[in-house]
Backbone:
């Protein structure tokens, strides 16, 4: 993936971000926090809240093609998200940018098999 730094803090469009993420998902599962990390590289001066908001929008677009799975990193079991976990995902910002402190680790993936198994 070709990333270029944007010192103005301008985030990519939703379509551009979805395109970049779709490319990443062609080769591997994608932890949610890596979306914000990608945005950190693309627009380091942008506000974290704006990056999280854009990451949430991009993930919601991708859910039509992929699924969200909870997992234990690096090689623990994975499972589809429960309703309670979906609520956590909607309200807990750490899930989106800080896997060390997040109470839930979530991947975007095609099914229950793959890199996070």
Residues:
């Amino acid at each position: 993936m070709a990333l270029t730094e944007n010192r103005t803090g301008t985030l990519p469009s939703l379509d551009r971000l979805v395109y970049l993420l779709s490319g990443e998902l062609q080769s591997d599962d994608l932890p949610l926090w890596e979306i914000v990390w990608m945005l950190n590289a693309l627009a380091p001066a942008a506000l974290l809240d704006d990056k999280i908001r854009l990451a949430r929008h991009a993930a919601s677009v991708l859910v039509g093609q992929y699924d969200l799975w909870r997992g234990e990193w690096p090689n623990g079991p994975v499972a589809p998200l429960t309703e309670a976990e979906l609520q956590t995902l909607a309200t807990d910002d750490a899930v989106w940018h800080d896997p060390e402190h997040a109470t839930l680790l979530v991947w975007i993936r095609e099914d229950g098999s793959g890199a996070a198994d």
User: Anything to note?
Assistant: The first helix runs from residue 14 to 25. The CA atoms of residues 12 and 42 lie 8 Å apart.
